[in-house]
Design brief:
The protein has a domain at 101-191: Immunoglobulins (Immunoglobulin-like). It has 3 helices and 8 strands; from the N terminus they run H-H-H-E-E-E-E-E-E-E-E. The chain has helices spanning 3-21, 28-49, 101-109; strands at residues 115-122, 128-134, 138-142, 146-151, 153-161, 164-173, 179-183, 188-191. A hairpin with a 3-residue loop joins strand 2 (128-134) and strand 3. The longest helix is centred in the first third of the chain and has 22 residues, at 28-49.
Amino acid sequence: MTLKKTLVLLFSSLFFLLSACAPGSLSADQLEATAKDLSSTWIALTLTALPTNTALPTATSQPSSTFTPLPSPSPSGTAPVSPTSAPTSLPTWTPYGQAEPEAFASAQANKSDLNAPLFFENKSGEEIQFVFLSPRYQEYKFKGNMTLILPEGQYSYRAWIGKAGPFNGSFSITNGDKHVLTFYADKIHFSTP
């Protein structure tokens, strides 16, 4: 059907509907004005529905998933205090990373700092991708065993054991003793001292 035939059909239908429902008849001028309003609305709606020239998306860089190691703690075991920072007695969340054996021993001995070692024991033989989801997002990849020193608190995680996963879970570190996450081929087990 052409546009002209459609408009004629539309106007004729409108005329009969309006003349049947109206208490009186419309004058020719009123009918013409109504038809123009309807056709203008119809054209505007048609033009609105037409696609527009939209710019193609540009390439954006994706954030890398590589781990940036955190600075190791000072040898004395206390962080240097800058003159602008206020002293605090609450532990910070920043994990110290993989601990050397001597740091692990001192962490076990000093239980007053509210930090505890978390030992990742990999019994799967696969590469582990481990992600802390809370209280702070942090990613780790390892194939052997690994130890982190973490402050006491609630932790939630997501992990992949080789190509299996994701495995989701949570645990709490409630004291300064060693806690263990053991990775098997099909599950993760958390044990407390």
